[in-house]
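Hello again, I could really use a second opinion on something today. I've been puzzling over a protein and I'd love to understand its fold better. I'm sending you its amino acid sequence along with the backbone structure tokens. It would help a lot if you went through both lines with me. I've dropped the whole record in just underneath, so have a look.
***
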Amino acid sequence: MALTGSLSAAALPELEMFRLDAGKKESYELKPETRYVALYFSASWCGPCRKTTPSLVAEYQRMLEKEKQPVEIVLVGSDRSAKAVEDYMKNYHMRWPALEWEAIPGVNSFAPAGIPYLVLVERETGQVISKGTGPSGVEAVVTRMREFTGVATEEPFKAGSFVDRYGLLIAVALSCLAIFLFQKWRGRNEQGA
């Protein structure tokens, strides 16, 4: 399978892919109707990836229910070995293809600073349509993918739970509230003494 074109200023090299079918590794090529490729940089050791992947798997299942599939998600594994990538795919029931381990260095120049990272690329031109890092970035790309896939649901795509998304913000707000209340309490005790 060859993906050519550019993601920014450089062209993608020819990429070898595989898909797991009933746990068995099989060579994979993009379908002729596939106009867009969504490169999903992810790893099993990455907490945000493990929280984002199940939502993306569910979205992919909705994509497969369509008659045509104009967008294909391709995993670019950031694990330490080919076996770890395959295990990650099995554990999360990823039905989309992945780059062969040996092909991953060919896209390293497009790798993000952080993962999970999803970049939607027009297949023929290599033009980047949308890209995003982290759960909220992946959400934005999936929203754009839906314009091409025809997947329509009443719910917007959400990666992870409310606490996953806003946990740090909630923790900071509660800490500030605790400090404020402690200072009020201490002020009253100092006045009463």
